[in-house]
Here is the input.
Amino acid sequence: MTIHSTVADKTETSAQTNITFGNNRLLIDLCGELDSNLTKIETAIDVQINRRGNELAILGDLDARKHAEATLRALYGRLEDGREMEPADVDAAIRMPAEIFEEPLSGDQIEMFSGNRVEVRTRKKVVEPRTKAQNSYVRSLFDHELVFGLGPAGTGKTYLAMAVAVSYLIEGRVDRIILSRPAVEAGERLGFLPGDLKEKVDPYMQPLYDALNDFLPAKQVEKMIEDKVIEIAPLAFMRGRTLSNAVIILDEAQNTTAMQMKMFLTRMGENSKMIVTGDPSQVDLPPGQVSGLVQAVDLLNGVDGVNISRFSFEDVVRHPLVARIVRAYDQQTQLPGSRK
Here is the structure.
């Protein structure tokens, strides 16, 4: 990717960095309606950005100017590549260093990761990590057989796992995707609910269905589920199986018991990848019962082939208020005498 811009006045003692852009139309898109993107960058990085023709002048301390410059270059390069730019892309560029946005090597999904930019290709969209933790998580999903994604709601743990699973499937690296969640409660007493198995399980699997429909056409999802290429299975139905040539995702894993987690992890067969996601701070098990997720992370930390990725409120990519809510709860649980 070539960014047609020149930078002047960048000495260590300078209080201003000037960037000249070669394409005024792209510069308009970069700045956003009523310079909304520039305002967002100014607020997040604590700089002032002045626009003069096809030049942007960044004022502030040196580190902040470098950060702002990298953000602007990354976004301008994105536009030069002909890619759309949404508000979330501006947030991602602010959060992550510019080298993540460099041009990937040609080739398939795996070869791409020898470059710097990380993205996951699915049938309907290209999915890009929006924080450093997400970037590291996606890389680990391609590099490890077993990955734990731990953190609060809205950090993309399950969404990114689903994107990678779909990518593996459409590239022929696996034959199927298997999705599971602890349903109803840790004991999974599905028999008390009305309807057949699918009707019992569907409400608990809806977030996984939502993600699938983001990555694959709806009719294709229906056909794949019908043909068992995509399998939705309650955790209790995993017992006794060997899961080969598959990506297996266990969501909301904080609500598994220690016995259930051991049972699940030992289902892995040849050419399979397991992804376990959950929020250890949101355990709904009865008091005194150890979460299988918490125990597994403690036991398997450092085991070859296992990666543990952790997210915080800084990685929340939903509405900005969600990040502030998560941070407030985290701070409350750290107070003396508070219950986690």
Notes: The radius of gyration is 23 Å.
